[in-house]
Amino acid sequence: MPDWTSEAEVQLDAEALLKLTHALMGVYIWEWFLTVDFDWELITGKRPFRWPIAFYFANRYLLFFAIIGILISFDTTTKLNCQAIYVFNQLAGNACVGLASINLSLRTLAVYGNSKLLAIILVIAILGHWSLILQAGVLLRAVWSDQSNQCIIVYTNNTILAATLIYTMVFDLLVFLLNAHKLFPRKGNIGYMGGSRLGRLLFGDGLVYFFIAFLSNLLATVFMLLNLNSIMTVIFNVPAAIASTIVACRVVRRLSTFTNEGPEMLNAVSETQLYRKSRMPSVLQATSARNHSGAGVHVQMETYTHSEAIVEHGSASNHTGIDLGLHCDGTKVRSEYDVEAKAIAL
């Protein structure tokens, strides 16, 4: 077991942090080059620009400048204003984590059909999160050292920083559980969203993104609370910010790309269950009558089939459309719940 507080160990950890940050900068630049075409399509108007995309851009590019600032503070040998650059790095890094949580929250809200109650809960959680993030400027004090020819940190407030990381971890866990609850197939049926392409998209890899964001912040929180030394306390803060930003931006891009293929219409009942019950055109009528005349609820459900040519693996597929009408005392009400269109609305 090494002596974490020894000068030699701290120096070794500092070198590891420097190399790790440079490597992560390369990873993030590679990620940016792979996906910059999406940003360009938004800028040139090839893709519709909706207000949540502003959080996507802020998250993506603020982290880019934050990493540059961190590398400058590590690599420079010329005297500079250490306090200013460290405050910027701290604020920008924490803001990136907060923006990543906002992007994940917006996707969660879309899955829940823009629920007003959930929106209020998430807004309150986001405001509480940012009340901690904006205190980052007073968390540390850095000065230039002529002896070591670099910036050194002479004071840090680990209490607020630890509280910020714990809040972020719990927040990411909350949105992960909310998505898992909504998208996980219920026993005995496909579930509310489980049968749609959007549900499969989010459940197949979207939930993995939420879980990665949670794990990255969990790791940073654990090392912050262990408080081994000044370097090991913050060594996973940058990886957590980069991991959270990458997965949050991927969630935004995948859903935005997915919606261009066109929304799916989901009814209040499982399409798959109806499709299994009847593959031929049929009309099912059920009448519940009381002893007195004129009272009752009449439910009429029409199922029709049609063929649609789709070139996929060299074959054509048959698709079934469902039309559900409800008749209550002679009044017809059509109810269709367009879940994926609500995701487009964001």
TrEMBL record:
Alphabetical UniProt keywords: Membrane, Transmembrane, Transmembrane helix
Residue spans crossing the bilayer: 53-74, 86-106, 118-140, 160-180, 201-225, 231-252
Organism: Lentinula guzmanii
Record-given protein name: Transmembrane protein
Record has Oxidoreductase as a keyword: no
